[in-house]
Amino acid sequence: MKEKPETIRENYKGSGKLEGKVALITGGDSGIGRAAAVHFAREGADIVLSYFEEDKDANKTRQLVNNEGRKCLNFRGDLRDESHCKDLVSEALSEFGSINILVNNAATQYPEDKIEDITLAHLNKTFETNIISMIYLSQLVVPHLKKGDSVINTTSVTAYRGSNHLLDYASTKGAIVSFTRSLAKQLAEKGIRVNGVAPGPIWTPLIPATFDEEDLKNFGKKVPMGRPGQPSEVGPAYVFLASDDSSYMTGQVLHINGGKIIGG
Q1: Angle CA(91)–CA(94)–CA(97) in degrees, nearest 5?
Q2: Rg (Cα) of the chain, in Å, rounded?
Q3: What pLDDT was estimated at residue 162?
Q4: 51, 160, 169, 238: which one is catalytic?
Q5: I want to staple 196 with a disulfide (CB 3.0 to 4.6 A). Which of 62, 153, 191, 211 is the partner?
Q6: Annotation says 169 is catalytic
Q7: Fold exhibited by the domain 22-256
Q8: pLDDT of residue 218
């Protein structure tokens, strides 16, 4: 990327909001996942980082977490693989003894302008990666969560406004909203909170890897603020939802989207 995303603002000051916590973050090698990891670390949490195959990016995230004085366990693999998910949770518990925060953030997308151009292979991969693996991993982690712990799911503005060229991706993000609300109801009596974040156009490595040059020129310019957001502007939302600051909040979604009015 010619223009590197900003992971965390220099003037962001941690205050121990997540001291002693352990966060498992999927898709944590770059972009929003990396921002969540580094913000969590600055607030005192240790990190378990799940990523697909981007070793260089994942090692960079681990270094950034280490620079904050916290530990980071990197775990490489495909979340669509049942055994990988089981090993991920097992290794996290073996390394740190507990999991307090689960951030379901991993996702993939394949833009197509026509529904008939969406291949079955891409359709299956998108759903398996974005929502099916999210539900399965949550099944594995939830039994280890306790009162005061939290699950945070990354959905998208596309779940609410739709997307003409990301039809299947937007559909999975809509499913994530419903999953968030439903799991929140299941776990409320246990004191475990489940919330989501719905980013708008955020400048991450996924964007230039997905869209052509023409789309990149206009990326983020249609929102009221007239620009794409930075991961550093999304990371604090995850801190809020992971910390006691959001203790009376569950089944909700925060909209970090540059001013797009959703549901108003």
Answers
A1: 125
A2: 17
A3: 95
A4: 169
A5: 153
A6: yes
A7: Rossmann fold (3.40.50)
A8: 78
